[in-house]
């Protein structure tokens, strides 16, 4: 399908009755799989991993990269002001990444942190990157409830983590490490971290932010938080919303080896039991989350992602249609 529909789509129905809206398209319109590497409009950029060096993105095609036409200082400042209002407790429509029950302290700290990140990004918009963000997702486990980071909030001083404390964080260390490598390799100007307090009191996005800034030298104001996602398909959805808010078209999702890397591939065994990301998104929300495909060369855990499923259509039409806000 190459990110196309090949027919007209009823935009009024697209984001509530996706399958019916795209019924005149090829069946591939009902899943995320496509072939962005075959079309320069996708802004698909391979990221190459070599032993002993940082991952590096390939050259960016003309008209691609971040910032693009959609990313402006005004847009980012406006989004930062929305987070300021959330931090003050004002009634304002929250982004998808904040649509969950958070304690007032957690909500305020996360909102203030995101406002600072957006303002820092606005100051550096003159620098071009292959992707709008490097994105990674947390992994929750009950043992993390014993972490000294349970009550840590973004903006506070780093806490010392001995080997035992690091072991409690499990594969989050590998995910944060890979995200930091991609950031330091120049793949994107910021890192988005996604995950709520699902399996323990420890908020996964907060622990990833701590690891990134305190263990892997990523500036705190280069990290954007999604403190609400509760599963990989929610991670993808909320990340798509953050990318749209940035005025970006693509993100580079990086994870650890194993189940999540396999889950994000074009097909996995989860598809057999209705547990794929596409199946869950259609069942839970009635729409697809976009398109993604492995973009890493040298590892199997890095993915080109766009929240625009029909990315090969003109931007004035279906190319700008996305159901994630």
Order of helices and strands: HHEEHHEHHEHEHEHHEEE
Task: Tell me the structural class.
Answer: alpha/beta
Helical content stands at 25-40%
Please state the overall shape, judged from the principal axes of the Cα atoms.
globular
Mean pLDDT: 94
Number of helices: 10
Q: Point out poorly predicted stretches.
A: none
Tell me the domain tally.
1
Query: What percent strand?
Result: 5-15%
Give a summary of the structure in a few sentences.
With 325 residues, this protein is α/β, with parallel strands linked by helices. The protein has helices at 11-14, 18-21, 73-87, 104-123, 163-168, 172-184, 204-215, 232-246, 259-263, 277-284; strands at 47-48, 56-57, 134-137, 191-194, 223-226, 251-254, 291-294, 296-297, 302-306.
Question: Could you characterize what this model shows?
Answer:
By secondary structure, the protein is of the alpha/beta class. It has one domain (11-320). The chain has ten helices and nine strands. The protein has a six-stranded mixed sheet, with helices on both faces. The longest helix is centred in the middle third of the chain and has 20 residues, at 104-123. The chain is globular and about 55 Å long.
Give a topology summary:
Elements: H1 11-14, H2 18-21, E1 47-48, E2 56-57, H3 73-87, H4 104-123, E3 134-137, H5 163-168, H6 172-184, E4 191-194, H7 204-215, E5 223-226, H8 232-246, E6 251-254, H9 259-263, H10 277-284, E7 291-294, E8 296-297, E9 302-306
Parallel strand pairs: 1-8, 3-4, 3-6, 4-5
Antiparallel strand pairs: 1-2, 6-9, 7-9
């Amino acid at each position: 399908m190459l990110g196309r529909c090949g027919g007209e789509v009823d935009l009024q129905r697209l984001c509530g009755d996706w399958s019916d809206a795209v019924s005149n398209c090829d069946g591939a319109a009902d899943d995320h799989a496509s072939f962005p590497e075959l079309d320069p409009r996708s802004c698909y950029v391979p990221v190459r991993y070599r032993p002993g060096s940082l991952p590096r993105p390939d050259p960016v095609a003309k008209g691609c990269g971040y910032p693009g036409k959609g990313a402006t200082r005004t847009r980012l400042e406006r989004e930062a002001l929305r987070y300021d209002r959330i931090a003050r407790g004002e009634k304002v429509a929250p982004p998808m990444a904040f649509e969950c029950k958070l304690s007032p302290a957690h909500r305020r700290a996360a909102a203030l942190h995101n406002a600072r990140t957006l303002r820092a990004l606005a100051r550096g918009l003159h620098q071009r990157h292959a992707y709008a963000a490097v994105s990674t997702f947390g992994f929750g486990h009950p043992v993390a409830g014993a972490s000294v980071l349970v009550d840590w909030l973004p903006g506070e001083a780093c806490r010392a983590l001995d080997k035992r404390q690091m072991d409690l964080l499990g594969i989050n260390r590998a995910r944060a490490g890979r995200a930091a490598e991609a950031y330091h390799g120049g793949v994107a100007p910021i890192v988005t971290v996604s995950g709520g307090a699902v399996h323990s009191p420890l908020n996964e996005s907060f622990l990833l932010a701590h690891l990134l800034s305190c263990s892997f030298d990523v500036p705190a104001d280069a990290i954007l938080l999604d403190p609400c996602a509760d599963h990989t398909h929610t991670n993808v959805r909320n990340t798509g919303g953050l990318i749209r808010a940035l005025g970006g078209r693509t993100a580079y999702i990086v994870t650890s080896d194993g189940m999540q890397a396999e889950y994000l591939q074009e097909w996995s065994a989860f598809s057999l039991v209705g547990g794929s990301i596409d199946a869950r998104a259609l069942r839970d929300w009635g729409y697809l989350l976009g398109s993604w495909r492995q973009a890493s060369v040298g590892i199997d855990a890095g993915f080109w992602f766009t929240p625009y499923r029909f990315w090969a259509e003109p931007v004035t039409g279906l190319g700008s249609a996305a159901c994630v806000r």
